[in-house]
Automatic annotation (TrEMBL):
Part of the signal recognition particle protein translocation system, which is composed of SRP and FtsY. It catalyses: GTP + H2O = GDP + phosphate + H(+). It comes from Solihabitans fulvus. Transmembrane segments: none annotated. The lineage of its organism: Bacteria, Bacillati, Actinomycetota, Actinomycetes, Pseudonocardiales. This is Signal recognition particle protein. Involved in targeting and insertion of nascent membrane proteins into the cytoplasmic membrane. Binds to the hydrophobic signal sequence of the ribosome-nascent chain (RNC) as it emerges from the ribosomes. The SRP-RNC complex is then targeted to the cytoplasmic membrane where it interacts with the SRP receptor FtsY. It is found in: Cytoplasm. The chain holds residues 1 to 298 of 513 of the full protein.
Length: 298
């Protein structure tokens, strides 16, 4: 995912090696190169601007360390600023004081929500929870069956509307799913919702209605990192239309340039909580800003 960006940043920073004191001109030149690398990686312009401003200010300021040479100091600053735009601390899942914890998934069709529901359920099981998956994507043909398949693979129960009951009302299914979780003592409920191929008012309304009805502890916006700048505009649309408390980046295994990953936190103000990097249930992990920054800096 970040190969090109990573190569570019590494070589920019390598150019500083062996220099004694860094002049303001050295720092300006380095920042210019970093700016180009970020823009080429599809990072949103306002994010690039604040990132560069942060680096410049700190690199030119009086951050002096006896232990590091000037080049190492710049690398350290770039690393810390990367961690910052990726969200700083790892954000843990917010668990309800009175279970079940309700986690709602929202995002465009094809973003990877249903796959993620299975991954999250498997991960939750590994953390000692007893999750229930609730199938509220009643729009896409096969979405319910697909959730049942991933649920089975993950070894978790799926609550779905009874077949033959017509299309059904997703808000009603969500409510009944949570009742079922209480009854059968599941401590976490993951609600899969319908997406559309593009941002769509009806989809937003439906997701917002589910949110209002079940008051989830977390609303996770699931976004395909391969869609580049569109990830940012889609995130803004979901923030305004539904609202969310965290982001899940999917398809980090793709060869996209990584700009989405670097922009979405800063633009929406919500943390990236999980990352998915493949089609298998195991290709999933908690998102750690510091580890991602280290990966980018090689
Ligand atoms: P939904 O419409 O949001 O529920 O999306 P799906 O879960 O059906 O996923 C859409 C497609 O993306 C499927 O073919 C998934 O196998 C694939 N997919 C999901 N997550 C990942 C991922 O992290 N990496 C890759 N390469 N493919 C993924």
């Amino acid at each position: 995912m970040f190969d090109t960006l990573s190569d570019r940043l590494t070589s920019v920073l390598q150019n500083l090696r062996g220099k004694g004191r860094l002049s303001d001109a050295d720092i300006d030149a380095t920042c210019r190169e970093i700016r180009i690398a970020l823009l080429e990686a599809d990072v949103a312009l306002p994010v690039v601007k604040s990132f560069i401003a942060g680096i410049k200010e700190r690199a030119k300021g009086s951050e002096v360390s006896q232990a590091l040479n000037p080049a190492q100091q710049v690398v350290k600053i770039v690393n810390e600023e990367l961690v910052n735009i990726l969200g700083g601390e790892t954000r843990r899942l917010n668990l309800a004081k009175n279970p079940p914890t309700v986690i709602m998934l929202a995002g465009l069709q094809g973003a990877g929500k249903t796959t993620l529901a299975g991954k999250l359920a498997k991960w939750l099981r590994g953390q000692g929870h007893a999750p229930l998956l609730v199938a509220c994507d009643l729009q896409r043909p096969n979405a319910v069956t697909q959730l049942q398949v991933v649920g089975e693979r993950a070894g978790v129960t799926v609550f779905a509307p009874e077949p033959g009951n017509g299309v059904g009302d997703p808000v009603d299914v969500a409510r009944r799913g949570i009742e079922e979780a209480r009854r059968a003592q599941h401590d976490v409920v993951v609600v899969d919702t319908a997406g559309r191929l593009g941002v769509d008012e009806e989809m937003m309304r439906q997701a917002a209605d589910i949110r209002t009805a079940v008051q989830p502890d977390e609303v996770l916006f699931v976004v395909d990192a391969m869609i580049g700048q569109d990830a940012v505009t889609t995130a803004e649309a979901f923030r305004d239309g539904v609202g969310f408390t965290g982001v899940v980046l999917t398809k980090l295994d793709g060869d996209a340039r990584g700009g989405a990953a670097l922009s979405v936190r800063e633009v929406t103000g919500q943390p990236i909580m999980f990352a998915s990097n493949g089609e298998k249930l195991e290709d999933f992990d908690v998102f750690h800003p510091d580890r991602m920054a280290s990966r980018i800096l090689g």
